[in-house]
Amino acid sequence: MASSPELVAVVMAGGAGTRFWPLSRRRRPKQLLPFAEGRSLLSAAVERLLPLVPPSQVVVVTGAGLAEAVRTDLPLIPPQNVLAEPTGRDTAACIGWVAWRLAASLPNAVMLVVPADHVIPDGIALRQALAAAADVACRYDALVTLGLAPTGPEPGFGYLELGEGGEAVGELTAHPVRRFVEKPDRVRAAQLLATGRWRWNSGMFAWRVRTIVAAIREHLPELAVALDRLVADAASVGEAAALAVHYPGLPRTSIDFGVMEKARSVWAVPVSFAWSDVGSWSGLAAVLPVHAAGAVVGDVVALECERSVLVSEGPLLAAVRVSDMVVVATSDAVLVLPRSEAQRVKEVVERLAADGRNDLL
Q1: R_g of the chain, CA atoms, integer Å
Q2: Dmax of the chain from CA atoms?
Q3: How many CB atoms lie under 10 A from the CB of residue 165?
Q4: Which superfamily does CATH assign the domain made up of 7-271 to?
Q5: What is the pLDDT of residues 296-309, one digit of tens each?
Q6: Which residue among 23, 56, 298, 311 is least crowded, i.e. fewest CB within 10 A of its CB?
Q7: pTM
Q8: Closest by alpha carbon to 202, among 91, 122, 276, 285?
């Protein structure tokens, strides 16, 4: 490339984080929890980007009820760069809204899209990969994703197959993507990994603003028309009023399913850095400092405990000979369950909602 493109980082910070109840609540979801060496996952995610993208070029998209908490958590980011969705409509709407806002002023800028709740210890490697992805996005007018090296046949992730004809980009190599497979079962995932050609789809992307706008127009025309109306109305009645009218009705779909799996020019930059999406209490031990008991946060006394997650936000939590368990204590709730059942926390939240226990949500 003759010159580096202008970069705009888009951090997706919506989501309820129900799998981390009772610590995670509607007003403080997973991305705002202090799981990154005492900082929130969101602030750590933004900090990883800042050497590559200046604070003025970082846009954070979150829910309306979280906007002020996000602004407080990110003092270096201009307050107007924290955008509030009236309601969550999945990643295609979120990314499309930002792209439509940028299209008039920065159509050739490259959007770097990252989630707010990933844990990536090696920020240098991430920035190198995102810079390479931005390069490929410009070279081929492509939609580019980072392909994570799988650590096993995980059925909860999307998979992508690397095509032939790798292209050197600095110290990395980019590949065209042959196809995507979304959340295969464990047997199918193991079959894919055995070929050596498949990677996890990271949910981290790079593309020119005009490229993603064109792709949404082609593959999600209903969303494109709705975004056109939103932007047109924003110019006359203000963005807040336009959002209130149009955003709740935007089609709900992911950018992966709605665009990436259908687009023609899709590339991946395979990466090997350590990564976790911290998907449940069980996974917390992998991203916290090593402790003999497992994962320990807060005022905890653990005697002869192992492979457990012990978290307290307030009262002293004392555990004796506890193994393979999750115990989380807050001022108003206690969660106890086996680590193997950590995904069922969502069921607890659903029961509380059904019972009208909104004070605990």
Answers
A1: 21
A2: 65
A3: 8
A4: Spore Coat Polysaccharide Biosynthesis Protein SpsA; Chain A (3.90.550.10)
A5: 999 999 999 999 99
A6: 56
A7: 0.92
A8: 276
